[in-house]
Design brief:
This protein is mainly α. The protein has four helices and no strands.
């Protein structure tokens, strides 16, 4: 009977695999030993001190953000309060004008309305400038807090680089 190749392969005992060849170390090959690697460098660093400085730095960052937000919020409140006061003042002026108008003299009433409208327009322009300056000042104060913290971060990094 003819035995097929597959059947013959099944009957043969499995050949033993050769053991993997081991490679000689760089020192055994006569190569120069490598300089200290990243692991050695990390061992030399004071990681606890570095981690503490990083945590402290992020805490200061958060404090600066909170302070800047408080200044920004206070500025927004000041703007809203001033807008409210301006609106109340304008309403009271218009009410006073409406109360002083007489039906008997329509020309005089229209003249007063025209004069009041012009004055109101000029006052509105001044109020817009005032509100813009108020908002700008509060945002500048908030930005200065963040700017100071950014400069502190830059200084801290420069100090770390000088030590390293």
């Amino acid at each position: 009977m003819a035995i097929t190749k597959k059947a013959a392969a099944k009957r043969r005992p499995a050949a033993k695999k050769a053991a993997p060849k081991s490679r000689p170390t760089p020192a055994a090959r006569g190569a120069a030993p490598k300089k200290a690697g990243a692991a050695e460098t990390l061992k030399q660093l004071d990681l606890a001190g570095v981690a503490g400085k990083l945590v402290e730095g992020r805490r200061k960052d958060l404090q600066a953000i909170v302070e800047a937000n408080k200044k920004s919020y206070a500025g927004i409140q000041a703007v809203v309060q001033r807008q409210t006061a301006m609106l109340k003042e304008a309403i009271s002026q218009w009410q006073a004008l409406a109360g002083s108008m007489s039906v008997a003299e329509p020309r005089e009433s229209i003249s007063k309305l025209n004069e009041m409208a012009r004055a109101s327009f000029q006052r509105s322009l001044g109020n817009i400038r005032e509100l813009a300056e108020l908002a700008g000042r509060s945002q500048a104060e908030a930005f200065e807090v963040l700017k100071a913290r950014i400069q502190e971060n830059v200084d801290e990094v420069n100090q770390m680089l000088k030590r390293g």
